[in-house]
Design goal:
Keywords: Disulfide bond, Secreted, Signal
Strand content: 5-15%
Radius of gyration: 29 Å
Main location: secreted
Number of strands: 2
Strand order of the largest sheet: 1-2
Structural class: mainly alpha
Shape: elongated
GO cellular component, one term: extracellular space
GO biological process, one term: defense response to bacterium
Protein name: Defensin-like
Number of helices: 3
């Protein structure tokens, strides 16, 4: 009975051993095939809601109400500020 238990234990250990992750090597091959280059720079545009010449306050207010705030206004730095007041 001890031998059967030892064999079952060895089989369980053999099954539980980690196998090499093939997805990393596949991704490396895919990047070489597609000639992909890593993005070095991230550029994020600021919202232009308060920079509009006409209707900036209305656009800012609508933007804030869409985000479930009561109102919104443009501050002196032309940034839309949402409030619940």
């Amino acid at each position: 009975m001890k031998i059967v238990f030892a064999l079952l234990f060895l089989v369980a250990v053999a099954i539980a051993l980690p196998i090499e992750d093939e997805s990393e090597s596949q991704l490396a091959n895919e990047n070489e095939f597609l000639n992909l280059e890593p993005i070095e720079q991230h550029h994020r545009e600021r919202r232009a809601t308060c920079n509009l010449p006409i209707g900036a306050r209305t656009a800012c207010n609508a933007h804030c109400q869409a985000k479930k705030y009561k109102r919104g206004y443009c501050n002196n730095k032309k940034i839309c500020v949402c409030t619940n007041k």
